[in-house]
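> call design_seq(struct)
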């Protein structure tokens, strides 16, 4: 018989963290689960770590061809057999109560397509960084309303603590492989078109930030702005006719995306990726030409040549001039 919950773990050279991810999945309070790893041709000891897991609920899958991150997520979706599906990144961790709380939330909201929880961001060593939450109490949001919020605010749903109703995945389709940045954002937007979204206020998942993560790689590449534009147009093209969206929603979404792109350009500059920072500034200007009048935008562009300290000095001079 099919399990109640499938927890798929997409993995690629994740030996440092994958055992903790697997153990957190197998330690859930709900017993009726399956846990499996979709190994994207790892060249490290990931296969050996998985071979040591002795639990009838666990299986290890290694694929012949290496695919991009979204492609491996789609492998997990295809392999899932449960009524509810969780994708747990190999460097993240679920708290023991996540599955039980998420299943209860889903069963209490039969029209919900997905549920997500508050998430603790941690560093490579497991140290606490900050909390990501959408409220202080559990709540259910109509899909159309959540769609608009997601479109404007970006990916406010952290992938570390998400459960999706299997039938909603079937309706929404697989992860969009046309982008590297915002693949999860694109999916949450499409799932919100299929039903309501439940938010759990408790912190039931850990999201790990480290230099070898996929997010860090995209920041270094400077392609996030271009991908956000692709996501916006992709999901707006899927909105059903009867759903009435506010006029000017696309323009507002692009303006917000331009601001986020500039913020990531600043982060790239701070992290020592000047080329990615310059690309981010240009992408932000392309999305929102009105930014050409903003001094901090050109300050960051110059800082991509002279170093982030240059931008900090400019900001201090501006602050002192206004004081």
């Amino acid at each position: 018989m099919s399990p109640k919950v499938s927890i798929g773990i997409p993995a690629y050279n994740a030996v440092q963290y994958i055992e903790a991810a697997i153990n957190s999945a197998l330690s859930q309070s709900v017993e009726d689960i399956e846990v499996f790893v979709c190994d994207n041709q790892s060249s490290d000891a990931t296969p050996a770590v998985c071979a040591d897991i002795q639990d009838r609920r666990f299986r290890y899958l290694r694929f012949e061809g290496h695919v991009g991150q979204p492609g491996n997520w789609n492998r997990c979706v295809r392999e899932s057999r449960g009524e509810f599906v969780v994708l747990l990144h190999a460097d993240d961790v679920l708290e023991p109560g996540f599955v039980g709380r998420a299943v209860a939330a889903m069963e209490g909201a039969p029209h919900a397509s997905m549920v997500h929880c508050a998430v603790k961001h941690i560093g490579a060593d497991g140290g606490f960084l900050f909390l990501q939450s959408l409220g202080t109490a559990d709540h259910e949001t109509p899909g159309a309303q959540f769609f608009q919020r997601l479109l404007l605010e970006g990916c406010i749903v952290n992938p570390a603590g998400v459960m999706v109703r299997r039938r909603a995945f079937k309706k929404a389709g697989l992860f969009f492989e046309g982008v590297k940045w915002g693949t999860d954002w694109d999916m949450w937007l499409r799932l919100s078109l299929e039903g309501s979204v439940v938010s759990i206020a408790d912190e039931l998942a850990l999201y790990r930030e480290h230099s070898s993560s996929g997010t860090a790689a995209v920041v270094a590449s400077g392609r996030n702005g271009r991908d956000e534009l692709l996501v916006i147009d992709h999901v707006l093209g899927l909105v059903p006719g009867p759903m009435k969206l506010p006029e000017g929603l696309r323009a507002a979404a692009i303006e917000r995306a331009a601001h986020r792109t500039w913020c990531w350009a600043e982060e790239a500059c701070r992290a020592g990726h000047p080329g990615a920072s310059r690309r981010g500034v240009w992408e932000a200007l392309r999305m929102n030409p009105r930014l050409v009048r903003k001094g901090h935008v050109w300050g960051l562009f110059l800082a991509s040549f002279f170093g982030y300290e240059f931008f900090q000095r400019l900001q201090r001079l501006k602050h002192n001039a206004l004081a």
